[in-house]
Specification:
Length: 160
């Protein structure tokens, strides 16, 4: 496990509210749009099959990400200091596997409940998470881990 100590473990990324709230708000907007403007019924069998795949992959990504943070003795919450840069497990392939797991969960729920408008809003949820959370987290990690984070950032994609 790569254990790179933070230079200033006291401050945090400056994320103002929990990113899962972004997913919930946008999903609710999708539900409202679906209620007001019903659109495309997704075939149940296909929607449910893809949903289950999304749920399984989401659960694996989220669980393995949390395990990596636990093993590193640091918090996965962006409102708490990051003491160690986690670069193993799913973090070898994505700098944001927890957010990716939330996107998959959101996508799976939209398909499961046949909320087409929530699917249409996926790019908006990604942009909001990127702007309101990820960009702040990346600046924080650059500030605290310096060159080690820049090297990690150069070799691992943001999403997948």
């Amino acid at each position: 496990m790569d254990r790179l100590s933070a230079q200033n473990p006291i401050d945090t990324s400056g994320v103002r509210f929990p990113p899962p709230i972004i997913f919930i708000i946008v999903f609710i907007a999708g539900l409202q749009l679906q209620r007001l403007f019903p659109f495309i019924d997704i075939p149940k069998v296909i929607g449910r099959l893809i949903s289950v795949i999304c749920f399984v992959v989401s659960a694996i990504l989220a669980a393995s990400s949390f395990i990596m943070f636990r093993r590193a003795h640091t918090s996965p919450l962006p409102i708490k200091p990051t003491l160690v840069l986690v670069t193993n497990g799913p973090y070898r392939f994505s700098r944001n596997p927890m957010y990716l797991s939330l996107v998959l969960l959101y996508f799976g729920l939209a398909l499961w409940f046949d909320v087409f408008w929530a699917l249409v809003l996926v790019p908006i949820v990604i942009i909001l998470v990127q702007y309101l959370a990820i960009m702040r987290e990346e600046r924080y990690l650059e500030r605290n881990f310096g060159q080690q984070y820049l090297y990690y950032k150069a070799r691992v994609r943001r999403w997948f």
